[in-house]
Amino acid sequence: MDPIMNPYAPGAGQRPPELAGRDEQLRTFDVVLERIARGRPERSIVLTGLRGVGKTVLLNALRSSAVRAGWGSGKFEARPDQGLRRPMSAALHVAVRELGHPQQDDVDQVLGVIKAFALRDAPANAKLRDKWQPGIDAPARSGRADSGDIEIDLVELLTDVGGLAADVGKGVAIFIDEMQDLGPDDVSALCAACHEISQNGLPVIVVGAGLPHLPAVLSASKSYSERLFRYNRIDRLDRAAAEHALQAPAQDEGAEWAPDALEAMYAATGGYPYFIQAYGKVTWDAAPASPITAHDVEVAGPEAEEELGVGFFGSRFERATPGEREYLRAMADVAAEMREAGVELDESESVATADVAKHLGRKPQSLSPARDGLLKKGLIYSGERGRIAFTVPHFGRYLRSIA
């Protein structure tokens, strides 16, 4: 098969040639946009799932839907080492410019509030040269969104932005990737702001994406968050959607997958979108001709696993310290022992922290630094008290293969 015409695209957040299995989420979001534009009440949206299921791809697709609807939109990725003010102000700056409001004075007023919100990121006694400048031409407006209390300021900021959008009959959507990495104060402020704009019927919506424990992070911040957001669990593709993700791009290039090849691909990838693209790319290059067969999948398997081992699994494993790697391997071993004992586990291989400590012959308290380090690096998550799980599907299998 011609590698130049290879249609498959494995990559972090890179849209695949065929966004299969996400039609329901896209249709639902279109309804949400239209309802908000008409002044109907709607909740902000949270997408959750393991890494490799396509949350970022879907987030970008939803943003494209907002742009097509004429909304102003902005996007940023949360980071544990960064507060909310800078990325939020940059995203809102883009969104306000996209609105196309005809009254420049009104636009400058809101841009000035955004600038004041951003500048409050620096300490009060900081010199001008040490203050981050958001690149907004309008002068900062004092007395609005600049109190220093992030919750008060964000509520005022989104209220003003929502008012500007309402003037032109449009809306503003802010898309936040890796939302679980927001700090506790920022999460609380975001929940409070979403609550306020919802109560006031303003056309502003937040769409967040994060790991499976994101709902617990939000709930720990504000008790009403479970009613504040519409939660969507993004999972691996079912058999039909996975086959469509392979077949449609191939057919566009005049090629086909044999039925036995599709079956072999689903067995190898588990229906995870990133794995489908990774296996699809390597198998296409390995196949001598169309239709692609199960034998081609078998031949390409070792190379696909090697690429995943280096780029998808290995890069994450390398970020861990020796003590953290020991903890990860212990998690994988405990999960394997549970499977051998007949316990059914999901792809995240959730295990009890007490079992990991027992496997290592250590006290649970002595393992807290390793566990906390892995949580901060996003390699594991805690969906419930006393249990931990991998954020990456098949990670345990990878760890057992290199042990």
TrEMBL record:
Q: Which Pfam families match?
A: AAA_16 (PF13191)
Question: Which residues does UniProt call coiled coil?
Answer: none
The UniProt entry, under InterPro entries, shows: AAA_16, Cyt_c-like_dom, P-loop_NTPase
Q: Where is this region: Disordered?
A: 1-23
Key word Iron present in the record? yes
GO molecular function, a single term: metal ion binding
- Residue limits of the Cytochrome c domain? 166-332
| Keywords in alphabetical order | Heme, Iron, Metal-binding
Q: What is this protein called?
A: Cytochrome c domain-containing protein
Organism equals Mobilicoccus pelagius NBRC 104925
Q: What is the lineage of its organism?
A: Bacteria, Bacillati, Actinomycetota, Actinomycetes, Micrococcales
